[in-house]
Design a protein that fits this description.
The chain is mainly alpha-helical and about 220 residues long. It has nine helices and three strands, in the order H-H-E-E-E-H-H-H-H-H-H-H.
């Protein structure tokens, strides 16, 4: 590994760690802050779904951080921390997911592209990890380089999701204002959380796994010569 690549690895590791730790911290802190309208995830969902003419049914994921929209099953799955909690985090999470629901309901092709992109990111990242380990076992530089190449390709797919994430963040905020679900005092914290939510689907943690493995191997001087 040359110094240029090592620098890139360190920058991405630090960026991913900051993203993960701060977003989780912000999520948990704003869970404790009651929103101005005192509406929980269930009520927020009901107002937006009814107002937008959507047909999603609400379901509890029974997990701390798992909230997502399932277009194929027409369901909005919310974390138990969100569904019955009248917090600022509940506002952001529900609006973020239902904004995707509105977008994908109007443009089904976009939803299909999103699913394919996510699948490719996961597949390529997983294969790249396996190839790095395999290259060490076989002492094969070609397989090692192929693993790194697949990682870079997966990261390009990650970057391609930026525009949709940012647009969805803006639309989420508009939805909340449209149904008078937020007040001015929540504006800054909500904006910040929505920005981080727009980055959440970038699978930085998947990328982080690949990079950390590579960095650890380098630190231990277990590398392909």
């Amino acid at each position: 590994m040359n110094i240029d690549y090592l620098t890139i690895v360190l920058v991405i590791i630090i960026t991913a760690l900051i993203y993960y730790l701060f977003s989780r911290y912000l999520y948990n802190q704003l869970l404790k802050v009651r929103n101005a309208r005192s509406v929980d995830g269930r009520e927020i969902s009901s107002q937006i779904i009814s107002g937008e003419g959507l047909t999603f049914t609400l379901q509890d994921s029974h997990k701390d951080y798992q909230s997502y929209i399932d277009i194929s099953k027409n369901k909005l799955i919310l974390s138990h921390k969100i569904i019955n909690n009248p917090s600022v985090t509940s506002l952001a999470i529900v609006a973020n997911e239902l904004s995707y629901g509105v977008m994908y309901s109007k443009m089904s092709l976009l939803w299909l592209i999103s699913q394919i992109t996510d699948a490719l990111i996961l597949l390529l990242s997983s294969i790249s990890i396996l190839l790095v380990f395999l290259s060490l076992i076989l002492n094969d530089a070609l397989i090692y380089n192929l693993g790194l190449t697949l990682f870079l390709i997966s990261f390009l797919f990650v970057l391609s999701t930026f525009p949709i994430g940012i647009l969805n963040s803006i639309h989420s905020k508009n939805l909340l204002y449209k149904y008078s679900l937020i007040s001015k005092r929540e504006n800054t914290s909500l904006n910040l959380l929505l920005i981080f939510l727009s980055l959440a689907h970038l699978n930085l943690l998947v990328s982080l796994v690949v990079i950390v493995i590579d960095y650890i191997l380098e630190s231990l001087d277990i590398k392909i010569k």
